[in-house]
Protein: Nucleotide exchange factor SIL1
Organism: Mustela putorius furo
Amino acid sequence: MVSWLSLQPPGIVGVVSNLSAAGQEAEGKIYRFFWALGPDLFEGLPAILGDLGPAPFQDGSSGNAAWAADGFLFHLLPQSSEPGQAVPAGSHVRLNLQTGAREVKLQEEDKFRSNLKGLKKGRRLDINTNTYTSQDLKSALAKFKEGAEVESSKEDKARQAKVKRLFRPIEELKKDFEELNVIIETDMQIMVRLINKFNSSSSSLEEKIAALFDLEYYVHQMDNAQDLLSFGGLQVVINGLNSTEPLVKEYAAFVLGAAFSSNPKVQVEAIEGGALQKLLVILATEQPLPAKKKVLFALCSLLRHFPYAQQQFLKLGGLQVLRSLVQAKGTEMLAVRVVTLLYDLVTEKQKFAEEEAELTQETSPEKLQQYRQVPLLPGLREQGWCEIIAHLLALPEHDAREKVLQTLGALLATCRDRYRQDPQLNRTLVSLQAEYQALAALELQDGEDESYFRELLGSINSLLKELR
């Protein structure tokens, strides 16, 4: 059974400004020394702190006398247990509801209780096997900084020596590799070489595609993508979208999508370089499906979290281009990606509208102004996207239906009347409700923890309820 000790002994808190390994160890020793000696310590307190002089100030938080010396700050705590009274690190404190007193349970409780028993017998107490005296304390205070600096210096030298043993300078490695006819290149040098290979008129189609494929790997890193535009490589890839070769368009868009992703600096440069117009032209013309897939990926990366690009997208007729893409035959896979993009753009705009209403400090006024200038929701309604998205519920894949249901819910405030006037949507929702009720029942019967079909059923029920 664990017993708790009343938090009564007065003590002194030592706060150490130098937190090196040696400093932490010294802090722990001095702290335990004061705490363990308890009241017996304070009979000789003037002798121990005599060299520090009278208390030069009072602690503003507690009003207790305080001394400062050699990187330490000492607080003299009162006899009674006051709020904020310090206890040894790792202690557990509780409030005794019967007595109203605070109690402490130490990690080394048995040793602490033994020390208290020894205190009652009138003998000086020890925490460790070593006995600490006032002279020991004054010596520790005087040598603390010096010892910590010496030990820190020794540790640094030892660590540097270890690193030198484990690693060799890059210049030595380069010389060794040069002797082996192996050249070490930085990421920047590799990207320059790949851009030159892609932009060279003497390179074959296969070499250009291989260069773009390798380049995509590097521009995933934000710094590398920004380096790409620093030497003009980004514009070279954007110009690759004008190629007559579908494969070049496909892999150029692949590189751009990776470079645009969550990289505002590159997104801005891409808009100024005409990337948005070129991407929309490819989507609006007859192109192979793999090329359009990569171009749509690049468009999504460019538009997300970039309201200015979204504004230009609407001005250039981007919604009409996507509508034609979704309604074309054999583009069901692209349709799901388009719906996902629209859902992301709608929820992104709604999020900033909520932040504007709450006037949170983290909200950027400039970005809020940019989002206010993006007429996305009216554009979706005018372009017939309420009906287009509703009809995509007929897709057979569960994942596609989930994304369509999410988008229908996000557009509910904008498209509610259109949804109610669409009898096909209501019939589809009722049919899906019956299908997912059966699938949800199987989930429960199999005892599956994941409730995927139950979540889809909940979305359908919510929509039906809103449209009544």
